[in-house]
Amino acid sequence: MNDLPMTAEDEGFWNEVYEILVEKAGAHPSLLEKMSFVRSQPTPEYRFIGRLGFGGKFWVNLGRIYVNCYQEDMTDERRAIIEDANQALSSLLDLRFPRCEGCGARHRDSDDEGCSCSNGTSSR
Ligand SMILES: [Zn+2]
């Protein structure tokens, strides 16, 4: 699917992702919606709608996590929302799953072994 290390076990991470979707992109703030999101991850695309219209989706794709909307629904306001949300998602990913300085692969910040590549040095 991609080179991202997150799994369904990473509930704390998915909770943080959903909080960004709520705060930045208007996803529904109810606990039920959050649980539904967290339980479905990781999935390549998840429709949350929010302030991005029917095409308002969260993507786990090509080593990135991001939101977007349908091209035909794009407005200046939505472009700004998407930019803001994606910056927050990218920062969260770098914080929780920092890149190995040797090979660029991501690993958990709580993983004591860090990366298994020969250059494996964590940036901690
Ligand atoms: Zn490495």
Q: Quote the distance from N terminus to C terminus.
A: 27 Å
Low-pLDDT segments, ≥5 res: none
| Secondary structure: number of strands | 3
Mean pLDDT: 90
Strand content: 5-15%
Estimated structural class: alpha+beta
Give the ligands present.
Answer: zinc ion
So how many helices? 3
Q: Which sheet architecture does the biggest sheet show? A: 3 strands, antiparallel
Report what the structure shows.
The chain is an alpha+beta fold. The chain has one domain. Helices cover 37% and strands 10% of the residues. The protein has three helices and three strands; from the N terminus they run H-H-E-E-E-H. It has a three-stranded antiparallel beta sheet with strand order 1-2-3. Strand 2 (57-61) and strand 3 form a beta hairpin. The longest helix has 21 residues, at 76-96. The radius of gyration is 15 Å and the shape is globular. The two termini are 27 Å apart. Zinc ion binds at residues 100, 102-103, 105, 115, 117, 119-120. Zinc ion binds next to loops.
